[in-house]
Every structure is written in structure tokens, then in C-alpha cells.
Amino acid sequence: MKSVFKIIVGLMVFGSIVSCKKNSRPNYQFMPNMYESIGYEAYQESDAFPGGIEAQIPAEGSIPRGGHMPFEIENSNDGYLYAKANLISPLDATQIDEKRGGALYDIYCGICHGSKGAGQGKLVKMEKILGVPSYADAGRAITEGSIYHTIYYGKNAMGGYLNQLDEEERWQVVDYVLTLKADLEKK
Fold this sequence. Notes:
Elements: H1 2-19, H2 32-35, H3 77-86, H4 98-108, H5 110-113, H6 122-125, H7 144-153, E1 154-155, E2 158-159, H8 167-186
Helix pairs in contact: 3-7, 4-8, 7-8
């Protein structure tokens, strides 16, 4: 009985404390600096920085957060031909994961190029996209550099996958495409 009485009294005390809270005025701020920070003008003259202005141009060669490495080959036909002749994969045999490359290929490429790389994906069969060639077509003569350049920038009606795949994933897909090409050429 005493415990029930204590619980009821406790609930009454808690209720009176909670009912005193007013939403119309702010509560106590424990760290006012966090709520009302001082705003600095980025282009204001200051003796603390060289040149007198706080906002500076990034250092040459710096890479922004997120680790996106810029691709040095331009998006042009000359860039494509240069990549086709000179660009090689930085991955060695121990870093290549055919299963992962296949999964990425199925997600991003298989819908148009088909699961075997013969140019007969679902969209081609439904006639939504036409003219997707097989990887084994004699006139294509694709290389790992040309595949990477095409994945990066896109080519003709195909868009680029720069934002969907990071550098390592693009190289995994390149290796898988070369595997599909070799399989098609054997037949």
C-alpha cells in the first residue's frame, strides 16, 4: 500500500514539473556558443592570412573530400583513342574480383548489353534501345582503356557511370567485360 502511495505521489510531482514547461519560451541553453556562433565574413581583409583575404583558392593538386580522383583523359574522340591505346588497369590479379565485377555489370550494364555481352539486354529485346553491339563484333576491337573511358564518360547513346561507380568498381566492370568478350570470341 505504501509503495502504491509513493508511486502516486511521484507521478503527481512529475506531472507538476512537466506542466510548468512553457513551449512559448526557449529553455536554458547549456552552451550558448553552439547556438549563436559568430559569423565571419570569408572575403573580409585580415592580417591572419596571406593576401589578406580568408577565402583562398585550394592548393594546386589538392583533391576534394570524398576521394574523387580526376580523370586526366579528356572526353573527346581523341581522348577515347588515347585511352584505347594507352590506358591499362591499375588492378593486379589479386585485386580482381570477377564475382563483384559480374554483379556490378548486371546492375549497370546488363539491362542493355545483356548478361553475356551479346548486345541483347532486356531493353534491346523490348526495342526501347536499338543498335547495342556485341562485345565480340570484329569492328569494335575494344580494349580495357576504351571500356574504362566509355564507362567514365559514356559513348553515343550510352551515358557515363562516373557518379554511380567509383574508380575501383569501374575497373572491376572492365575486367568482367573483357571476360565476356573472350567468352563470346571462343564461340
